[in-house]
Fold:
Amino acid sequence: MDNENMALVDQSKIPLRRVLGLTSGILIVTGSIIGSGVFKKIAPMSAVLMNREYILLAWALAGIVSIFGAFTMAGMATMTSDSGGIYEYLRISFGNFFSFLFGWASFLVIGSGGNAALAFIFSQSVNSIVPLHDPLHNWQHISIGNYLFPFESSGIKIMAMGAIVLLTWINILGAKKGGYLNNIVTATKILGILLLIIMGLTYHGIPPHENIHHEIYLVNNNLFSAVIVAMLSAFWAYDGWYCIGFVSGEIKNPKRNIPIAIICGIGLTMIIYLLLNDAFMHVMPVTALSAIDQNDIAALDVARILSGNIGALFISILISISTFGALNMFIFSYPRLYYRMAQERFFPIKASYVHPRYKTPYVALIYSGIWSSVMVVSGTFDILTNMLILVEFLFFALLGWGLIKMKRQGKITAKLIAYPLSPVILIVFSLGLIINTCIELPVQSIAGILLTLTGVPVYYYYKKKNNKPGLVQNESEAYHDLGL
Structure:
């Protein structure tokens, strides 16, 4: 074996460096969650519920379900200190098949599509402050199958890809650098949101609660269904709380710090979301919020009422900071999942390489950056990520069942928070949401499931490859030999 190949083999055996403490962990959770959703989702939620109390209820319930999910994940985190998060917990609980499908869906859409969506929204918010040049404007009509328009909004897309490349490079340089950047950006956006909350709640320009006598509109005249539909919007704003599990290999004392970070991070975010949405509805009645185009940013309209164009500029800057920070955390965390898949030989082996100097999974970061950039160019990320909400909750239900299974088998001996209530509620709610989503959005639901199932032949390809004679037994097979 030549020296070059030896160097490559050695890189797959270099361990990640544990450099992130509890404070960084809490800010990772908060930074992963708070992006653009909280500034936009009040409009579609108002259109569905048309009632202040029910809107706040939907935000609170989504937060509570996320906290029960956090309790469940915290319990699973006591089993291992390896990177991979939900992928690793599903692998230990159920074997490679379901964990691979989660990892496949994450690389194909959830993680990479999230990167693309956040990068695009960041670029759009920058464009609202400083208009970006559109160098390929003359080619914007060119399409692939009259569906993909790769040259449309080329200036925004180039800016978005530039943000992905920059943050990928920063995170290759070291986990601590990516963590420091997140700490600064997250602290800044929380301060900005708190300022907006104070301005909104102390505003006296119009009579508050103008909508109190407005007739409540419910989807199919069903309150439960309407609240669930509204919660789908809220869940997009809460999405990302589980990302810290992907970076377990770089968290100090992960079995202690990850559960604390998840619970504190979601709790802080839920308080911020409730106060901010209450402030929105204090400035604008729900009837007015419901009339805002769902593709527009409702917070901009609120800010213009509060302080005119200066307020709109403030919100644009705040959204830029928020989405940049959330993008940084998605780029930081998801490649650790692909790194773990590669260690288990269910992803290209090079993704398991760790940089000899910076101790980061640099190849996995590069793979993620390339596919995320492709999705930016395609412009299909919003459609794809919406389809995968149902699939994400299917894996959350499996996570809850996995905790119960591991606890009953004695594989988890630690005292767990709100057990068995937390996994049971997570399972029941996830199944309810899945059923309701299939009924209300059947085409998107089926498409999301089929997209995930494209990973089945890929899984069997890797399984066959891994079972070749002479191949060293991987860690996953060892777990099965132990009956896990």
